Each structure stands twice: as structure tokens, then as C-alpha cells.
Automatic annotation (TrEMBL):
Similarity comment text for this entry: Belongs to the ClpA/ClpB family.
Gene3D superfamilies reported in the protein's UniProt record: 1.10.8.60, P-loop containing nucleotide triphosphate hydrolases, UVR domain
Name recorded for this polypeptide: ATP-dependent Clp protease ATP-binding subunit
SMART domains found in the cross-reference section: AAA, ClpB_D2-small
Subunit structure: Homohexamer. The oligomerization is ATP-dependent.
Any one Gene Ontology cellular component term annotated for this protein: cytoplasm
SUPFAM superfamilies attached to this UniProt entry: P-loop containing nucleoside triphosphate hydrolases
Residue spans of biased composition, Basic and acidic residues class: 283-304
Native source organism of the sequence: Streptomyces triticirhizae
Biased composition (Gly residues): 9-19
Length: 682
């Protein structure tokens, strides 16, 4: 019988009752060597070094049990499959010729062992079978850490029975069992290293994440398998995009696994869209059958006019069926996965609009400054500084292991700091809902620092995730607004140092959170007295260059006294906001009134604010110490409340044109009746 017979059904009855001493191996194992001979294992590309190291360890006299250690998805199992393929081809040293690699299914081994001693008996019997053919069998245990505590009734063997790790140790020590293990770095540290007697019997082999170039080579090697499965073609550009986009946007996973998932899902989507044509044809055929029945009934009833109409309808349906069939054949023949398909999959996974992942991103970035200026009035220097920093990052001319941009916004209240952050989030990430706001006044005490990254084990609330790390881990493509950052405890800045410099942060549970796709904006009122002291409507930096430098120094002086130099040195831009002048206030007022215009337009009412009305509102709503914030309250009190009353009284009906002017020192609302307004509401 074939050595790998029955290995295709792990956990099943395996090779049957007549398989002799290999029955347990067949029942609980999967013969990778047999699968490799049959060509049922995907080709392994770019892991020659790790395969060679594994062969070297297996060929040793002692400690010849390698354990592959690496992050999830980097290709640990693929290394073992590559070894099985080389064994099947005879491309191994003589000491390994003729051996089989059996992947042990530990869950099937443990399943059904309800009583004490069942698991030990089953595992001991399996070890006896392997010992009897130790020169032929190499056992592969994926997720090696699961053997620690398996079957023992508890993680530390506290259930009164021996766990799998303790049962395996003697056979491993005597060299009667050849095992290849695979586990992650964290799980090896938590489970294997704690058991020194078990750890010393394995030789670690690190499996690093492949580079992007290696990942592209791997995808090209797998292309034929996925093309045959999905019946599509993958362009070289699509494979390149899968690696680049996954490396850039799917930062919590590892190559090549995340890139392979992208091409797999994109292939499924393209295939599904290509198969919809057959559904259209079936619908047309059903309509054709119904039309034929109606025509036969019309002829039988001697309604020849109706029959003539149905005959023309049948001819039209026949033409459409033939056209749809040809289109479906063409689509199936040329179905190809493109860069747009890959970008669409990434977009659905991350929530980033597709347009921001392809060539259109360049146009979005080049127009970023203009989009910001449309919403943020009178802060051209601040807008330019923010836009330039984002452009540097997106163009690849800044460090790739730092956030997209980190900014410290300085200025008095109501000058547009938060509005610029909200507008930047909408321009970069497609929605202002991607702005996450943390009020740093809530982190003034030392113990509140743990809320950012989570409490350490043993402390109350250690099972809860950190507010900062969990927010970014779940939505890494966002703008993080740290409001009134100067009020935070000094220990908070120790955490921010790592984020601003390395773009990464480790939470209390040991998970690394990536901040490289995040924009960090911090706001502060420090130094705002130096800006507002120049008087209302004066603005900031409007004088000579020497005066501007002096004023900037006055603003930055309290900043340097409060923050440490290493913190300020890691910020991309310290942006100083001007105090709004009279012209800027008028523009802000007009911008706020646009919201009222749009709300009334939805009810088919056209409203016009005269320049005098805008000036009147700007004058009433400006308070130097509060900036532009009182403007919104003034508009609500003087405009929105009056419009609400008129709407409820039925005075503003569809197609009404309303003009808001100033008369006798107050706002004057004049409505034009619909009959006279014509199309005023359009």
C-alpha cells in the first residue's frame, strides 16, 4: 500500500483497519510526503534558507528536532511543505531519503478522551507506532505550544493527568521521535520556554517575514494555482499591487499571507461578477418562454394584432439573449484581476475609499491645500504647513516608520484648530468620522496613563483594552486629535515619544499597534495670550519679518517651558494659528450660513443673505476672547430660530424665495410668494 494512504482525511478513520501498525498515524496524521508526490501541495518559493536549516537540524545526531518560530502568516507551514516536496523529489541528504513527513492533528488526538487515562493511552500508542518506524517517519506538529497542557486537564497538568509535553519528553530525549514544530514568537515564549526540559530538546529556527520583493516572487509562483481555481488571469500589476497595498495598509498581518488572501478574494470577486451574465441569460429565456405562451394564446384567440406585437417582442428577446451570451463568453474568456480589483478588496477591508489607493490619490493630495482652505478661513500658513507635511509623507520622502504627520496646533480658542483637524480627516480618509478625539484633561493623574494602553496584568481592569491603542488597532486609518495636550500628565508624553518617533506602541497585552497610517494632531492654548494680546481683528504675523519672529518667539517660549525638548523635537510641525481679522470673520460667517442655505434648499426654499446681513452677524457674533465660536450661537439665535418659527407657521412654502437683510439695526426677513418667485427654489 502507498505510505500516505488515507492521509487525506485527518481525524477520520484513516487507512482502514487493515493498515496495520500505521492505523493511528493514518487516523491522526496527514501524510505531507504523499500529498507532495501527488502534486497537491502549493509550490514553496523563496524559503530555501529555512528549508536548508531544517534539513541540517534533522541530520544532526542530537537535538535533531527543529522548531520553526515566526509570526502568523509568514510561511512556517510552507517550510515543512517545501521539505516534504524535496523529500518526494529525492533532493535531500542520504540520511533523510525514504522518510515521510506526517502532520499530526492534535485536535483529533484529544477529541473523545473523556476519562482520565484515555489521552495518555492514545498518545502512548501513537508514540509506540512512530518509535517502531522512527527511521521512516518525521512528525510535524503545527502550533507546537498546544502540546503543553494538552490532555492534562489543565494548562499546568493540574487535572491529575500527564499532558502531551511530558509524555513526549522521554521519546524526544532518547532520539526515538523526530519532531518538527511550528509556533509563533509570543506563544513559544509563553509556553515552550517556560518548560526548560521541553525547550532544550528543540532547536529554534527563526522564520522572518519575507521582503516585498520575495513576496512578489511567491505570488508569481502561486499564480497558476489561483488562476486555475478561479478561472481568471492575474496581471503582473495586480500581483505587485497586492503586495504593496497589503504591506502598506494591512499592517496587523504579515506577508505573504495577507497578499495571498488579497489575490484569492479578488479572484473570487472577479469570477462572481463574470458569472452574473448567465443569470441574466436565464431571466431573458424565462421571459422568452412566457412571451411565446402569450403569442400562442393570442393566435388561438385570433387576436393577430397582439400576436404581431409578441412576435416582435420575441425577436427582440432572441437578439438580447444572443448578445448576452456573446458578452458572457467574452467576459469569461478575458476575465482578468486588475489593480482596481485588488484596491477594491483593500478598500472593503479597511474602509478607505478605492480612489485613495490608486492614481487618483495624487490628484487628491495635490488639491489637499485648496480643500482645506475652503473650510478653514484665515489660516493659510497653518493650512500650508499641514498640507506640505502630508505631501512629504505620501510622496515617500519622509520616514516610513512614523505617522503620516504629527502636528501641534497653537492658538486661542475659536480660531479653527479643531475645524482644520476635522477637514483634514475628511480630505485624507473620506469622512470626518475618522477623527478620533481624546480629551487630554482626562489624563491629568498618573494612574490614568494606563487607560491609554491598558492596565498591566494583575491590576483592576487589565482585561480591558487601552483607549488609545485599541482605537488605532481597530481603525488605523484615522486622525487622532489630542485636545488640550498640555493638561496631560508628564508620563503621557513618554508614551507619545514612542508613537511620534517609531510609529508603534505596545499595549498591555503585548500587541504591537501600528500608527504609521495615522495623523496625530495635538492642540494647546499655551502661548495664546501672546496672540490675543495684540488686540481684536489684528491677526498674527501681519507686521514686518522682525516683528513676526519676535511674536513667534513669544508664543513658543511658554511651550518650551512646559514640554521637554525631546517631545517637541519629534513633532513634524508646530503650527501657530492667527487671531481672526474682520474679513476672515465675515468669510467664516458666510461659511456657517451655507449650512442654513442647504437645509432650506432641501425644503425647496431659497434664502439669500445680503452683505449687510453677513456683516451684522459677524459684528454681533465676534468676541475676541472666544474667537469664532460665538458666531454659531449668534446665527442660531438670530437666524435659525426665526426661520424655524416661519416654517412652523407655514410662511415658507416650497418655491419661496427669502431675503435676509438689515433694517433699523436688526435683521429683516422678506419672503417672496411662490407665484412671484418662479423657479427661485431651484
Amino acid at each position: 500500500a502507498q505510505p500516505g494512504a488515507g492521509a487525506r482525511a485527518p481525524g477520520g478513520p484513516g487507512g482502514g483497519r487493515g493498515a496495520g501498525r500505521a492505523s493511528n498515524l493514518d487516523r491522526y496524521g496527514r501524510d505531507l510526503s504523499a500529498l507532495a508526490r501527488d502534486g497537491e501541495i502549493d509550490p514553496v518559493i523563496g524559503r530555501e534558507s529555512e528549508i536548508e536549516q531544517t534539513i541540517e537540524v534533522l541530520a544532526r545526531r542530537g537535538k535533531n528536532n527543529p522548531v520553526l518560530i515566526g509570526e502568523a502568516g509568514v510561511g512556517k507551514t510552507a517550510v515543512v511543505e517545501g521539505l516534504a516536496q524535496r523529500m518526494a523529489e529525492g533532493d535531500v541528504p542520504e540520511v533523510l531519503l525514504g522518510r515521510r513527513v506526517i502532520q499530526l492533528n492534535f485536535s483529533a488526538l484529544v477529541a473523545g478522551t473523556r476519562y482520565r487515562g484515555d489521552f495518555e493511552e492514545r498518545l502512548t500508542g501513537l508514540i509506540d507506532e512512530i518509535r517502531a518506524q522512527s527511521d521512516e517517519v518525521i512528525v510535524f506538529i503545527d502550533e507546537l505550544h498546544t502540546v503543553v497542557g494538552a490532555g492534562g486537564g489543565g494548562g499546568d497538568g493540574g487535572g491529575g493527568a500527564m499532558d502531551a509535553g511530558n509524555i513526549l519528553k522521554p521519546a524526544l530525549a532518547r532520539g526515538e521521535l523526530h519532531v518538527i514544530g511550528a509556533t509563533t514568537l509570543e506563544e513559544h515564549r509563553r509556553y515552550i520556554e517556560k518548560d526548560a526540559a521541553l525547550a532544550r530538546r528543540f532547536q529554534p529556527i527563526l522564520v522572518p517575514e519575507p521582503t516585498t520583493d520575495d513576496a512578489i516572487t511567491i505570488l508569481r509562483g502561486l499564480r497558476d494555482r489561483y488562476e486555475a481555481h478561479h478561472q481568471v488571469r492575474y496581471s503582473d500589476e495586480a500581483l505587485l499591487a497586492a503586495v504593496q497595498l497589503s504591506d502598506r495598509y494591512l499592517t496587523d498581518r504579515f506577508l505573504p499571507d495577507k497578499a495571498i488572501d488579497l489575490i484569492d478574494q479578488a479572484g473570487a470577486r472577479v469570477r462572481m461578477s463574470a458569472s452574473t451574465t448567465s443569470g441574466d441569460v436565464r431571466a431573458l429565456q424565462r421571459e422568452q418562454e412566457q412571451a411565446q405562451r402569450d403569442k400562442d394564446q393570442a393566435v388561438a384567440a385570433e387576436d393577430y394584432e397582439r400576436a404581431s406585437e409578441l412576435r416582435d417582442r420575441l425577436s427582440e428577446l432572441e437578439r438580447r439573449i444572443e448578445e448576452s451570451g456573446r458578452r458572457g463568453q467574452d467576459r469569461e474568456r478575458i476575465a482578468e484581476v486588475t489593480v482596481d480589483d485588488i484596491a477594491d478588496v483593500v478598500s472593503r477591508a479597511t474602509g478607505i475609499p478605492v480612489s485613495s489607493l490608486t492614481q487618483e490619490e495624487r490628484e487628491r493630495l495635490l488639491g489637499l491645500e485648496n480643500r482645506l482652505r475652503e473650510r478653514v478661513i484665515g489660516q493659510d500658513e497653518a493650512v500650508s504647513a499641514v498640507a506640505d507635511a502630508v505631501l512629504r509623507s505620501r510622496a515617500g520622502l519622509s520616514s516610513g516608520d512614523r505617522p503620516i504627520g504629527s502636528f501641534l496646533f497653537l492658538g486661542p480658542t475659536g480660531v479653527g484648530k479643531t475645524e482644520l483637524a476635522r477637514t483634514l480627516a475628511e480630505a485624507l480618509f473620506g469622512s470626518d468620522e475618522r477623527m478620533v478625539r481624546l480629551d487630554m484633561s482626562e489624563y491629568q493623574e498618573r494612574h490614568t496613563v494606563s487607560r491609554l494602553v491598558g492596565a498591566p496584568p494583575g491590576y483592576v481592569g487589565h482585561e480591558e483594552a487601552g483607549q488609545l491603542t485599541e482605537t488605532v488597532r481597530r481603525d488605523p486609518y484615522s486622525l487622532l486629535l489630542l485636545d488640550e495636550v498640555e493638561k496631560a500628565h508628564p508620563d503621557v508624553f513618554n508614551i507619545l515619544l514612542q508613537v511620534l518617533d517609531d510609529g508603534r506602541l505596545t499595549d498591555a497585552q503585548g500587541r504591537r499597534v501600528n500608527f504609521t497610517n495615522t495623523v496625530i494632531v495635538m492642540t494647546s492654548n499655551l502661548g495664546s495670550e501672546a496672540i490675543s494680546a495684540r488686540g481684536p481683528r489684528a491677526g498674527f504675523g501681519r507686521g514686518a519679518d522682525g516683528d513676526e519672529e519676535e511674536r513667534r518667539e513669544r508664543v513658543l517660549r511658554p511651550l518650551r517651558e512646559h514640554f521637554r525638548p525631546e517631545f517637541l523635537n519629534r513633532i513634524d510641525e508646530i503650527v501657530i494659528f492667527r487671531q481672526l481679522g474682520s474679513e476672515q470673520l465675515r468669510q467664516v460667517t458666510d461659511l456657517m450660513l451655507n449650512e442654513t442655505r442647504h437645509q432650506l434648499h432641501a425644503q425647496d426654499v431659497a434664502v439669500t443673505f445680503t452683505p449687510a446681513a453677513v456683516d451684522w452677524l459677524a459684528e454681533r457674533g465676534y468676541q475676541p476672547e472666544y474667537g469664532a465660536r460665538p458666531l454659531r450661537r449668534t446665527i442660531q439665535r438670530e437666524v435659525t430660530n426665526e426661520l424655524s418659527r416661519r416654517l412652523l407657521r407655514g410662511e415658507l412654502t416650497p418655491h419661496t424665495a427669502l431675503t435676509v437683510d438689515v433694517a433699523d439695526g436688526r435683521l429683516d426677513f422678506r419672503a417672496t410668494a411662490p407665484a412671484d418667485a418662479g423657479a427661485a427654489g431651484t
